[in-house]
What does this fold into?
Amino acid sequence: MSNSSGEKKHIVTPSLPSGFNEYLPSDQILFNSMIETIRKSYESFGFVPLDTPVIERAEVLLAKSGGDTEKQVYRFTKGDSDLAMRFDLTVPLARYVSLHYGELTFPFRRYHIGRVYRGERPQKGRYREFYQCDIDIVGNGTLSILNDAEIVGVIYQTFKALDLGGFTVMINNRKVLGGFFESFGVTNITEVLRAVDRLDKAGPEAVSKELGELGLSSECIEATLKLVALCGKPSEVIGEIKTWNIDNTLFNEGLSELETVCSAVKGYGVPEDCFKVNLRIARGLDYYTGTVYETFLNDHPELGSICSGGRYDELASNYTNQKLPGVGIAIGLSRLFSQLKESGLLRGTERSSVTDVLVVPMDDCLDYALKTASAMRRRGYSVETYLNGGKMAKKMGYADKLGIPFVLVCGESERDDGTVTVKNMATGEQKTVPIDPENGLNLSFLSEI
Amino acid sequence: MSNSSGEKKHIVTPSLPSGFNEYLPSDQILFNSMIETIRKSYESFGFVPLDTPVIERAEVLLAKSGGDTEKQVYRFTKGDSDLAMRFDLTVPLARYVSLHYGELTFPFRRYHIGRVYRGERPQKGRYREFYQCDIDIVGNGTLSILNDAEIVGVIYQTFKALDLGGFTVMINNRKVLGGFFESFGVTNITEVLRAVDRLDKAGPEAVSKELGELGLSSECIEATLKLVALCGKPSEVIGEIKTWNIDNTLFNEGLSELETVCSAVKGYGVPEDCFKVNLRIARGLDYYTGTVYETFLNDHPELGSICSGGRYDELASNYTNQKLPGVGIAIGLSRLFSQLKESGLLRGTERSSVTDVLVVPMDDCLDYALKTASAMRRRGYSVETYLNGGKMAKKMGYADKLGIPFVLVCGESERDDGTVTVKNMATGEQKTVPIDPENGLNLSFLSEI
It folds into this structure.
């Protein structure tokens, strides 16, 4: 190819950076419909939208973290500024609540659907830029434990609306785990919980070995494995664990919280078989201090937890002296979408278009066609007019390839008679029906043919 | 503040980087409702959503640009990768269409609502991270001029839906301008058009002087100022300009395109007073080759163009040898929002909440309250349950501060009678009405009180 001065033009390969991802229209439409479902569910519980900058001051973003997180962060300087791209939506929330503390009303309930960035080693379904869909409820000083039950209600309603098949919300309480280990005199609880968290991946033997290396007695290891095997109906699990008569304040506080949460969850209409207490759920982060959540698809446990979170005592201690306890969850939507697609679990018609009706003007009937299209738009339909040249077969082929369900032909005879010819692209059926584009259309024919 | 080991904790100031912006909930809700209006309008014309990565390979993003753009770009390395953040949504579109050429159906109609990044000097209302709302129609080889008319239809419907008061879409055609200057033997047309583009800001004298410095004869300068003063009803402006009998192929091609577009625009229901031909519109970019658009609020011309764009011959010549002509527009939403707010032009109630109803459980009526809230959610309301402690005045104060319109009190007497007490927060009116939370509610009382 030559440009105007006759030189050979340099063509740059239009590829994406490694680990980055984008969708073709059909997947983008499905992905957006999932976001829309999640958004509506979050808003139905009165969570307000938030949208913080993707770039933050590196000092702010990395106030707490270290090690792995820091290595994965996209960090750069621009002018004098040391900047970094957010790697989750929780640190920006902490920063936001601290910065706007005086202007917010507490409990502050926000949702945030946005992209985060992690320079991880690219793997199948794991991207360096991905969507998270978070909700958090942040209290000022205190926050009732009942909010922990509400989160289960939100998870239930959201995944019911997403229609991905049966799922189970598993909850636990870190105080139960912490108190349990405290009663055995174990002090390195964070490390112990991290080892327990690997039970599914590493198996009981490896974890036992690791717990031994962390200094746990064999009696304690045995009790631990018995504890983390408990999973089931809240009343049964809590009943069982009560018979162990563990005399530890933290443990009993956690157990009481767990009971309160499980009892309140019923009010949210969560069916019994969608909700379990699972003593194995620990969440690796040292961040959580009470209730923790994970969510699994019943028929696809191999996907891992598709919605996780928990209660934390201090959201923003790096930015403020205010005590801001909270509880929240995140859905890693990009990864979930990729897994669902891989497993053939995505519902909804695959279409490359949002258009309901393609209007095709014939001969010199453009004006009639445009008015017909505008009238249908006013009735809430998504309507495209085929404005480009070519034979009828090409125009029908366009509708067909994109999955547009109806084609409306506006030719001379239609214009003169005040009609349109409608073709149902799925059945091939065709019908000429009267319309009145100036005064609104009777569109019942779309469901008739 | 001390952490668990008793050390003094370091508090990081939770500020944003200079030039970055975020909203408090009330503004975020308004901003999102504008995005939603734009999205719906774009989709009603059958544009499909697209969402490309914020980060691209620097080589790709900077294939064409140079000078100012390059200086403003956020560019950094991560590992071996030379990366950059997108500074508009058009270059990513060009890259996308080139990369997925074989998988797309043309004309390819997409909208993209997303953030772009420019390290400009921060100014009032100008951010380094801001939203753009773009549509483009990209043809494969050719693209009918009728698509240029459709874009006016989309602008009209979108700004009508945004309800910002009277507005005018101004159109012009670069070929008319180009042919006009060609007929005077002017060859440095890009520079000349850039000077003309500054007419509003710099005034006719400064522009005349600049045109003189660019080598234009005084006769040509005089004719230029006469040309660019033409602005009005399409038929009148085009009629006037035809009497000039300029004998130039490009000029007459442009004029004929302008006529075709103006005639087709009527079919989109655009009222005559919303649409003008304005020979002054040039758009500074050398990028555009035909129709160009700008849009102004009638009562606030000082805001400048709030929606601009045009026709280009080759979208993606940096990435592919395919000829991909297109036409599109962009709304710079973050800046527009800031200007509208500043000018007091934002419609809609300012609320810090999306909640319709706050349900307040009294005494031990939590379960009754939760069931009532769930039933209302199933009816499509956004419902929050006040789950935290405190006196009634505090709970009412919470609803009041957030602008929640209704509070439902569920106490013992209500539960026993199967009623709720509803308070209209605007009028203070209060009423006890029967409900049936298990079997769905009669919610007509919300409009009654």
In short: Chain A touches chain B through 108 residues (CB under 8 Å).
